[in-house]
Amino acid sequence: MSKNSLKREIKTTKDGSKTLFISDLNENYHSQHGALQEAKHVFIKNGLNLINNYEINILELGFGTGLNVLVTINEYLKTDKNHIINYFSLEKYPISEFEINDLAYFELFDNPEFKNMYQKIHTSDWGKPIEIIKGFNLTKIQCDFFELKTINLPKINLVYYDCFGARVQPDLWEKPLFEMVSDKMDVNGLLTTYSSKGSVRRILEELNFKVEKKQGPPGKREMINAIKL
Boundaries of each MnmC-like methyltransferase domain copy (predicted)? Predict the structure, then answer.
């Protein structure tokens, strides 16, 4: 049974932001301790804010609800916007229009323009780059993560490794996929993930990453940052 055929329901997390929950797998798309807090902590504080390139190429596995795109745009808008972000996001099972509308993530941000941006993010065609706002380009790619090696991408500076947990999809936390991701990354590129599994740390070290354990988001003691050497 594919994850797209499994029933998903919307739940509210402890910080008031919503997430999707797959009851058959007992798996949330985001932390039940706070979807928004987790995204900001793992992918902004310990991801985007550590990259100083003029042009930043981001690879996300996977697109899911689109929350990570929104928090990235929100952070980009805080800067003087004199740089460029090219955001590439992989997703095998896009969520439905009903789920998009019910999640209503634009309500989490004060900027009234976020409603239009939220719709633009979700209604844009898969496989085609689109400028969400000036200097921020999004390309959504509908594919299995293991098709990554066949996808033509620029050298990636930052990876948001946001797959379902290893309990549900153990193959996404094993060496073959990390090797594909590494092959797409530039030297000194950063991979950030909510996971802190010892097996993941060892795999990344085998692939010539410098791995650092960081304080985790609410509800998690630790997470991983890994720099490609």
Answer: 143-228
